[in-house]
# Entry
Amino acid sequence: MITVQRTTYRKGSVKGKVVESKIEGDVYVESDDPERRLPNGELLEQMPRYDSPICEELAQAGASNHELKICAEEEMLKYIYSNVQYPASARAAGYVGKTLLSFVVEKDGRITDVANARFTTATIDAEARRIVASISPWVPGYQRGKPVRVSFVLQINFDLK
# Structure
């Protein structure tokens, strides 16, 4: 497994509210063949991306990988912020926080191994895991023309503002 460092900051609006999200972490690339493991720092030919219909229209129109990456990140954040349900008990208690989740995008685009990497409260963490597990399908990552498993770390901010 190798590590590729990446941090992405996004600011936008969902349902008229300004949202800021920070997607950060390490991307781990697994190789089934130990003889062909990638050297440290080598980037994937194609990173996995959320398979949004809007982004797929761009792909069909010949958009670049960079344009597709930006589209997929924006669509994923819209999905998260429009589908997340702030837990009532956490809202009533005034709990806020940032939860860090790890997950794997499999070779077939499924999301697996969703787990908390940093904890807030049980109800907030459970909601964050639920929403991340529901973000599918994805277009898998590719290296040397073959799909590969890729692990992500995603931060979701829960704020009462």
The longest strand covers residues 2-14. The beta strands are 2-14, 17-29, 49-50, 97-105, 111-118, 138-139, 141-143, 146-148, 150-158. Confidence is low (pLDDT under 50) at residues 1-41. Helices lie at 53-60, 65-83, 88-93, 122-133.
